[in-house]
Design a protein that fits this description.
Blueprint (H helix, E strand, L loop, with lengths): L2 H7 L3 E7 L2 E9 L5 E12 L5 E11 L3 H19 L15 H19 L10
Antiparallel strand pairs: 1-2, 2-3, 3-4
Length: about 130
Amino acid sequence: MSDYGMMDKEEIYSKVLRAGRRTYFFDVRATKAGDYYLTITESKKFTNDDGSFHYKKHKIYLYKEDFTEFREILVEMTDYIINEKGEEVISERHQKDFKREDDFVAQEAKTTEDTQSTDSFTDISFDDI
């Protein structure tokens, strides 16, 4: 492989953010002209039925001429989300065993109803028949 090919693959500066099943890679790389740009890669781990796993990756290339507008919009959007929904994470709702508050109320009412309905029965002995 040529020296350029090796340089092209090399990250100049990198940071990693691990976030549950997702990992974000922030890598500064060099253009052919020697200028720098940023790649942001999201890597998400998926487990197969047989226990093996694989990763899906998505990459964004961000060049210096877009930094200012990108930063402004990113700040605006993240501020909007925090202002509208707060900082509490509600992603548990997407988990298979998540129970909503109204599910608990409905289950509690059903349990109470079942208890009340069985209390109204008279005990019968089949020996009496």
